[in-house]
Design brief:
Helices cover about 35% and strands about 25% of the residues. It is an alpha+beta fold. The chain has 2 domains: about 45-215, no CATH class; about 250-385, Immunoglobulin-like. Helix 6 packs antiparallel against helix 7. The longest helix is centred in the N-terminal third of the chain and has 40 residues, at about 1-40. About 25% of the residues are buried.
């Protein structure tokens, strides 16, 4: 009986092993089906980020909202530097968004929270702001001085801004996108882009607008009358690109004007007045003109300008705002003072073959040896030694 019992137990084990051997492939198949089915149906946080950005770029904000736990309007506030809505048009914003590319690089899941690593490629707003300030501001001043109305100036600035944006190179920055599990789906908690002002070092001004600090108008402290104080977190402004011309030296320029097309121009510095001689002339021009503060003095420069040739046959707007005084250290002096009654002032609409003589003026340090720079940083830049 003992022997028979042992044999029976042995046979049972054999039968169990045989059944397990036959059932194992089926068991394995069922597990694979269940596992793969779960993989295919469980939401992918990376795909949610890609789908959201595709919908946003296409302007389908209702579809984009499906993937988020925030208001889609927050994307605009985060990705676009605040500014003048009249200049930064809808078309410009759309062109900007079309150039923003988001590439997912992996993710991790922590319970009901996920984090997707992405690389964001977008136009370099440092470069864009640099060119916008160098090219747009002088041109806008020139147009305003020549009598252009606000609508015409805004139209010109919108066109120029769009052109500069199209020529702006791209940079790539990393970012981590948080998502939360709602029901059986992932929702983006924040836009998949970092704050533009943080990436491109665009601090918010007191008025709430984003403005690079190096472009803020220089201010003069009550206790400091040396060089003008200027917030310049990125170093001093670059030196003029050309050797300065002296008085009596004719400088010929060939450049593109935003309103007049391609022009050929010649400029000659005729004379300069500074210190007491300049103050005497300023005071005689109008009693409303104030004496310069201690440590500062007026510097007047008289230029002769002749329009040799104009591409469109249109008059060329010339203004004293097209000239800036740059200190020997490369810092741009504040050039927004107004002197009354100084004649002839350098404001004119030149026709082809016409020339004009007029004064421009600056407030500079008494011991400084500044340069006058025409269209600083632009194609038609010219430098003049004011000594």
């Amino acid at each position: 009986m003992k022997e028979l019992g042992s044999k029976r137990i042995g046979m049972k084990k054999i039968i169990e092993l045989a059944l397990l051997k036959k059932l194992f492939p089926l068991f394995l198949t069922l597990n694979l089906i269940f596992f793969c089915g779960g993989c295919l149906t469980f939401p992918d946080p990376e795909k949610r980020v890609v789908n959201f950005w595709s919908a946003y770029q296409e302007g389908d904000y209702k579809k984009a909202e499906y993937y988020t736990a925030f208001d889609v309007e927050e994307v605009f506030e985060r990705i676009w530097p605040p500014g003048d809505d009249e200049i930064f048009s809808d078309k410009m914003f759309q062109n900007y968004i079309e150039r923003v590319d988001i590439t997912v690089k992996g993710h991790e899941v922590d319970d009901s929270r996920a984090y997707v690593e992405v690389y964001v490629s977008w136009p370099d707003m440092d470069y864009f702001m640099d060119r916008l300030m160098v090219e747009a501001v002088p041109a806008a001043f020139s147009a305003a001085a020549a009598g252009a109305d606000e609508e015409k100036i805004d139209t010109f600035l919108r066109t120029l801004s769009l052109e500069i944006l199209e020529e702006t190179p791209e940079i790539t920055t990393p970012h981590r996108v948080p998502l939360e599990l709602e029901g059986d789906d992932w929702k983006l908690v924040e836009p998949p882009v970092p704050h533009v002002k943080e990436v491109f070092d665009l601090p918010e001004g007191k008025d709430g607008n984003t403005e690079p600090e190096k472009y803020r108008v220089p201010t003069f402290s009550k206790d400091f009358w040396g060089e003008p104080e200027i917030q310049d977190v990125k170093g001093e402004l670059p030196a003029p690109s050309k050797e300065p011309a002296g008085a009596g030296e004719v400088v010929k320029l060939d450049f593109h004007d935003a309103l007049s097309g391609r022009v050929k121009l010649e400029i000659e510095l005729l004379e300069t007045l500074r210190g007491e001689m300049a103050w005497k002339k300023v005071k005689e021009a109008s009693p409303s003109n104030e004496r310069p503060p201690e440590g500062k003095e007026y510097l007047l420069a008289k230029f002769r300008i002749r329009l040799i040739e104009g591409e469109k046959g249109e008059p060329l707007n010339i203004s004293d705002f097209m000239f800036e005084a740059v200190s020997h250290r490369g810092v741009v002096y504040e050039n927004y003072l107004t002197l009354e009654g100084l004649e002839p002032v350098l404001k004119v609409r030149l026709n082809e073959a016409e020339e004009y003589q007029g004064w421009t003026y600056f407030l500079v340090g008494e011991k400084d040896k500044p340069l006058a720079v025409f269209q600083r940083g632009q194609e038609g830049e010219a430098c003049f030694n004011l000594e």
